[in-house]
Amino acid sequence: MIKASIGLQDLRRKIYLKAKSDKTWRFWGLYVHVCKIETLHLAYREAKKNNGAPGIDGVSFADIEAAGLKAFLEQIQNELHSRTYRPMRNRIKEIPKGNGKVRTLGIPGIRDRVVQGALKLILEAIFEADFQEGSYGYRPKRTAHTAIDRVASAVVKNKTRVIDLDLSAYFDNVRHFTLIKKVAERVNDDDVLRLLKLILKVGGAKGVPQGGVISPLLSNLYLNEVDKMLERAKEVTRKGRFTYIEYARFADDLVVLVDGFGKWEWLLKAAYKRLVEEFEKLGVQMNQEKTQIVNLTQDETFSFLGFDFRRIKTRRGAWGGDELLHE
DNA sequence: CCGTCAATGAC
RNA sequence: CUUGUCAUUGACGG
């Protein structure tokens, strides 16, 4: 068959539309697209524009281009085709976080960043179709600003009981088996699954490495079931255009807002209980000290994406909108 | 319309 | 030998 080779952008759009219109479809024949020079080349350019440092092999972008980019990409393609590709160990680098703690990065070699990037380009087209409205982190065309708008708007509409969740180190706690199972719900391609397992395994027995190109996408997939649960809670309690629960998640930063009227107290409790269950199933720890339920009508506050949310009174004494303070 | 290269900021 | 994703803004080029 002489099917004219379609461009990567068209392919990704086609995959996305299929996934969107057929929610149970399992994609096959994806590996060949991951291995295409066009895909690898785009992944290389994306990696290069971050000006990142080399992995454990010390090979830089300048080194690669001095030896010839074309040969570099063809070498990767050959190894992928012959199933001899093996990712190298990640280079471990500890960097200080703001609060005096350290963040452990797992930095893949540049050629492994290219492979992960190629895989990400294909898988993202599928899973973007499955992600929920309230999920904002690491997603194309989504900004922290719109996530904050969603929360602010919910507060204005009287959602004043807030579950402010803190997840401890959830990148590190992703269970590979559970994650692969979620990927396999949509991907019926043994080569792709095998490649993904190789990539996960060099990062350790569990967790996705901070520094990995596909880690953000995988982390969103891992928590997609939580987003779906909250979305269902919203739709089940909906009365026409009125909703009584809202949520927004940006990576591990999650807030759930429930209507402040007394008759919805049960919904707040139920949502919290369901969240505990979902995170338990996933092996993700809720930080019990920093997770809190606040009541905005009692002058309590919460923080989301660096903004402090509080309810203020207007000069007339009526409840005004929400207010954002500090950065 | 397509591309390249700087910044910034959320996690 | 501070990694990654995403977004925004700006400059320039064909």
UniProtKB/TrEMBL annotation:
Residues 76-309 form the Reverse transcriptase domain. The keyword Glycoprotein does not apply. InterPro entries: DNA/RNA_pol_sf, Group_II_RT_mat, GrpII_Intron_Splice-Mob/Def, RT_dom. CDD domains: RT_G2_intron. SUPFAM superfamilies: DNA/RNA polymerases. GO terms for molecular function: RNA-directed DNA polymerase activity. Keywords: Nucleotidyltransferase, RNA-directed DNA polymerase, Transferase. It holds the Pfam family RVT_1. Coiled coil: none annotated. PROSITE patterns: RT_POL. Belongs to the bacterial reverse transcriptase family. This is RNA-directed DNA polymerase.
